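yo

u said u wanted the structure for the complex thing, so here. seqs first:
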Amino acid sequence: MQKIAINSGGEMNEIYRSALVVTDENVNRIYGGMLPQNKCVIGAGEANKTLLSVEKIAAAMIKCGVKRSDRITAFGGGMIGDVAGFAASVYMRGIEWSFVPTTLLAMADSCVGGKTAVNVGLVKNAIGSFSLPDVFIETKYLNTLPRREYESGMGEIVKMSLLDPLLYEFMQGKFNAETAIKHCVRLKSAIVEKDMYDHGARKALNLGHTVGHAVEVLSGMPHGTSVLVGLRLELLMLRDYIPHNFFYELQAYINKYLPELRYNFDAEAVAVIAMSDKKNVDGISIMYPVSIGEIREAALDRRTFIRLLREAM
Amino acid sequence: MQKIAINSGGEMNEIYRSALVVTDENVNRIYGGMLPQNKCVIGAGEANKTLLSVEKIAAAMIKCGVKRSDRITAFGGGMIGDVAGFAASVYMRGIEWSFVPTTLLAMADSCVGGKTAVNVGLVKNAIGSFSLPDVFIETKYLNTLPRREYESGMGEIVKMSLLDPLLYEFMQGKFNAETAIKHCVRLKSAIVEKDMYDHGARKALNLGHTVGHAVEVLSGMPHGTSVLVGLRLELLMLRDYIPHNFFYELQAYINKYLPELRYNFDAEAVAVIAMSDKKNVDGISIMYPVSIGEIREAALDRRTFIRLLREAM
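structre next:
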């Protein structure tokens, strides 16, 4: 069971007992003054989620004399968790690490479940590992989060709410980040515990991601926002499989968080990217809800996928 | 239990059912004509045991459409096993792989035990994973092995023989590669099975490696040859702990395989490299034999290490 503390106030202790803290330029600009000397700052953004950054972190670990029995801390968004977590999981064939997420997306989603990864060329998360960090979520870091990053986090929370009646109901009322995060962490932890190595139950988390991943690559929009765009398109593509009223209810719900129409993607390019996803072994898999908490899978061949996506846009 | 076939003749079947075969320039120059189209050829030698080669292999896997359920084959020496095995162990968070070793060192030693790794800067094996391949050893590939590589393999076999009376006795008679490899595979498999994640029993395999690793980095000699030089120096350093007659017997035995004196290393540089090893958490650890099969550990502080090494050279 992964150790996840929410608003415990213990994150700086953790950072100071680590042999190295890894963060990105943006986070370092705001919080760098609070961090210890033994830190490694890498470039911000998806473009730096590479093996080159892993090498930079490993070189910093070597320079700081990080030993097998030491631990490091990732301090930043999901990208920092991915790249520092991957580096920890392979440094000396694996050392322990902690994660202090600073974005809503990382707090509500990516800090749970132990998937780390880097991109290879255009292929997202082509290389990675399963490695569970201890997590210290402190919602105060949301105060400095840029608006577009906040919206991105809301995207994954909205997606997650389709998996769980309690969270869905909560999302219809007054929003509170700490409560939403607690719901998401509980929900994702339960799913991950059933399926650590991504053989089945985790698939439900993939709602919105088949199209969303491609949208992210093609548009450069933040991950959670892309997932929400992907979710809206996937629901439109599979509307014939979804109960009528539920479909319209979901469209209205999603539109609250995604008012603009951003539907300008090349359907063939989306299909190529979706086919390259590691989950799509036979055809292209799309997850869709038939009610809150009840998620099914559709497997589309390439041609059908392209036709349905064109109709949806 | 790792699947290891010796002279089964099945290696080409395995290569042709793989989604990708990874090899190096040298092996490709000799055997490239026998290999399938879907191959990835990387530069030969320790200098290419890097994350850059891992990225190149991952890009080739993406290009060949390698899926989570596919497997790849490493065809070459220990360096190819290390880098291709590491790439397989992290591609899509881990796929299966096979290893067809082409060097004596890889057949007798590195194909067993599932340690994969790449170097970061001067630090050998700074990044890696535990990942067990299926192994297909075919001794016919030794026919094209350069002499200095063959000698390197003999170095690890000589080291291994200090762990096992049966192998030690065999080594006093007429040498036969297949029999020696069988002994080494049996012996190392038994040790690895007791200690997959390198917490104790595997330490015995580290005979000769504390000084040997540094010798390899400083001299550029092949791994096994460096280990043998390291073993000779380590025995000299710790001769007071080793029964008199046994010490002289071992020196004579080692000299048969390493006639030249190659003792020209900066003791301080050796100490710095030894300190950076992941096994040396407190002080510098040296393994030494008190009889065949009975291995002990000495932990030296830096100053003592340098003094004893200077005296040994």
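The mean pLDDT of chain A is 94. Residues 177-194 of chain A form the longest helix (18 residues).
cya
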